[in-house]
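Contributing new complexes? Match this layout with adenosine-5'-triphosphate.
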Amino acid sequence: MNIGLITSGGDAPGMNACVRAVVRSAINNDISVYGFYRGYEGILDNDFVKMDASSVGQIIQRGGTILKTARSKRFFEAENRKLAFENLKKNNIDALVVIGGDGSFTGAKLLSSETGMVVVGVPGTIDNDLYGTDFTIGYDTAINTVVEAVDKIRDTAMSHDRVFVVEVMGRDAGFIALRSGIAVGAEAILVPETTTYIEHLLERLQTRRESKSSVIVIVAEGDDFGGAQDVAEAIKNRYANFDVKVTKLGHIQRGGNPSAMDRVLASFLGAGAVEAVLEGKSGIMVGMEHKKVVHVPFEKAIKHHQQIDGNLLKLAEMLSV
Ligand code: ATP
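Output block (do not edit by hand):
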């Protein structure tokens, strides 16, 4: 049996640990693994390498992905997905394992339903926005990166009595903002899932300011009010005496050595994907819920979108007095 393997969409720390787990558990089951470069692009270009146990040595601790990743415009077209299927068949690939986020699984679902290709997904995205898994590979590392950066910002904010508005990744989802915001003791957290009432925020900042020298506001980039710059302008317009600074953390959130949690999760899910293929599963994502490996149909993983935890939002607000 032959498995094709890709990493697709935005890169996430822990993807390499997952590649290693897929390759080594496949070899353990006498299955060969072919890694295609740059996600769906590599399948369309027939750009692949046969992977053996040593080809995934010394990568568990490395960020990024040795298979590279890409956002493939071509894969949006049905005729190109047919071409991808033909390439996979020509290379005797029996099943495809896709490590990626919701976009990658949308493509995987179409490939599987249109051509009958066996496809199994593994959630690899820093966003943690997929339904059917408590955490996605890369999320834990990303929030730890945010926490490390904001702790440093807090030092300088306190010394200068400043307000810092920090923008973190999350175009559609506020999971990075929410958990990292709680962990740094942010005075306010703005996420796309809830409406931002700017008046409410401004009033709260004034009361926070009375008791504290520094204020940290964490803003997910997709917040409905706008990005960190817009929020900072609103604060400056209301309180001319506040010294307000903006920091956009940007792509550092994608890089770095994966945390222990991400390496372990990636190892479980990579091995789980190979098991799912052996069990004849297709059109599903392998996730981890309550410490158990679970199988979730692609359409559910994508469409149901993990809900933001209202209790965590309340907790953050209560603790930031
Ligand atoms: P992240 O959450 O980290 O951004 P992702 O997997 O959601 O990762 P996307 O760029 O949304 O990243 O999707 C990755 C790739 O999946 C796209 O470049 C495209 O090749 C494929 N894809 C996404 N949506 C579709 C779609 N509707 N039809 C076909 N292919 C798609």
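Reviewers usually confirm one structural detail per submission. For this one: The first strand starts at residue 2 and ends at 7.
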